[in-house]
Amino acid sequence: MDRQVEVVAGDHVLNRVAGAVILVAHREQGRLTPDSQAVVAARALGELVVDATAQAPAEPGRLVARQATRWLMKEAERISPGAPIEFGILSAADNGGLAIFLHGSVTAVLAGSVVEYYRGSDAAFTVDRVAEPPARAAAVFIDESRRRPPELPERGIGSLIEGLAPAAGAVVWFEGEPVVSRRPSHPAGARRRAMEPPPPTAAFDAERDPEPEAIPLDPNLIPTRTSNRIPASLDADPALEPADPDTEHLDLHRAPTEMGGSRETSGTNPAPKPDPDLQRRLEATAKATALTVKVLGFKCARAHPSDPRSAFCTVCGMPVDQTQQIAEVIRPPLGMLVLDDGMTYMVTADAVVGRDPEQSEPARAGLLPLRIDDSSGGMSRAHAEIRLVNWDITLIDHGSTNGTRVRPPGYRDWIRLQPNQPFTLIAGAEIMLGNRVLRLEPIAPPPFG
């Protein structure tokens, strides 16, 4: 987004990178430092945005949302053990739209002829929306008070082109002409690298590679960390670490579970040491994000809770020891529903789906309302329910006028559900509600080994 991004003064962290705006809440005591969890998270999310923009330069928003969701599941715990990382991302979406991704106490504001508010704290896990660019401005704020909605400040002359800044929020002004960046942006470098053989981590620090000309890569350059590793600021000086020859020709972004690190593991079947504190941190994080349902299950070598019927971990995809004793664990998200326009819904709790489910009886009974726009007239206000039963995701037609249809993976024809009869979904299944189609995708990467 080549627009003026004005910084609202505050004590949190704002990162402008590859045209996107990333705001991360600073919840630790004391002032911000380079090692603060919010700063580390902002840099890690910045790398994620750069990678997504390299793959979809004109419209990275959908990919940013999907990668941010997986980052929350796999990497956020390493940066902030036991405490959720609250953040918001505004990025460009297809057809000139604006992608909004929120997690935790973060609010997005769209100011046009009317003012719209999106609150991360109102969602069971995340807010993932694509909206039309507002006529005036879009903003993202860290919630300091739940009672008073944030207000847009008067427009100033400042504009953050790129980099980090302390902030309470950020305003992207859509009025007037776009702002032209005065220096090369990360996506340009990413597109240049796409024409060359990719380096070991598919990304270099922009400050170490500032030249816009396409030149041969210097073998002495030090690659940055990928999103499936701990950010560099958590380790001792990463610039002193030699490149790992075992990963030289591998794209770690496409195989995040196949490499466990050259120092501790090797080969295609890594067995990292279990973290004895991970369960405690999982429980603390789960309580903070309303994921408090306990079920019977197994744990993988990384102590992730997993479906006992699966040979691979529900969270990370690692093999699971099927001979261990079953125990009570906190159930992780069971999947991700991807709408036909790219919007995603994390399956974390029972939900009611329809074109206007907020005031429906299931929503008043406590089900999460998932609203889907449908101009065909074939979707009911409260069309269907998603119910989680132990480790299964079931779909129930709510007696809708036009019915609910499901196409399991490998099937050619659609199956119309009987009203009020649960149907168990599996990964790859498609759901038709009115004229809209959703697909259930797994959270964990494919099994390896």
UniProtKB/TrEMBL annotation:
Residues 231-242 have a biased composition (Low complexity). Pfam families: FHA. Residues 183-192 have a biased composition (Basic residues). Residues 180-278 are annotated as: Disordered. Keywords: Phosphoprotein. Residues 351-406 form the FHA domain. Transmembrane segments: none annotated. Gene3D superfamilies: 2.60.200.20. InterPro entries: FHA_dom, SMAD_FHA_dom_sf. The keyword Cell membrane does not apply. Residues 246-256 have a biased composition (Basic and acidic residues). This is FHA domain-containing protein.
